[in-house]
């Protein structure tokens, strides 16, 4: 059995026939080919699959695709400008060396951009609290926090 799914992903209307058990992260990666959204733990603990759903950071491995019916989704691929210029948060991660292996980076960037939407001038504590559900096994978080602070300060 398949069901019809219609939503907007990175500004583009998308329609598909999917198995109703399809997770949103599977839909994004396997049906749309947007592989920047990573699958890390499959249990919503690591944050590698973080996307924006109607402007809010959510873990796409913990949501059925059908729960996003009619929603607006932004993935890491949708943050950059159409001309390829990086989003200021992506540029800050690069400038501040907020990544090493890069596996957690898309989820971190998506969580951090959602934070600055709600709190444009977060304290270090606010940043660490907002990123609490995103695990990085390489960086020790110092440069990730610095990147968010840099972006919040305007670059």
TrEMBL record:
Q: Which InterPro entries match?
A: 2Fe-2S-bd (IPR002888), 2Fe-2S-bd_dom_sf (IPR036884), 2Fe-2S_ferredoxin-like_sf (IPR036010), 2Fe-2S_ferredoxin-type (IPR001041), 2Fe2S_fd_BS (IPR006058), Beta-grasp_dom_sf (IPR012675), Diverse_Oxidoreductases (IPR051452)
Q: Does the keyword Metal-binding apply?
A: yes
Instruction: Using the record's annotation, list all stretches that form the 2Fe-2S ferredoxin-type domain.
Output: 3-79
> Pfam families recorded for this chain?
Fer2, Fer2_2
This protein's UniProt keywords: 2Fe-2S, Iron, Iron-sulfur, Metal-binding, Oxidoreductase
Matching Gene3D superfamilies, A to Z? 3.10.20.30, [2Fe-2S]-binding domain (1.10.150.120)
Could you identify this protein by its name? (2Fe-2S)-binding protein
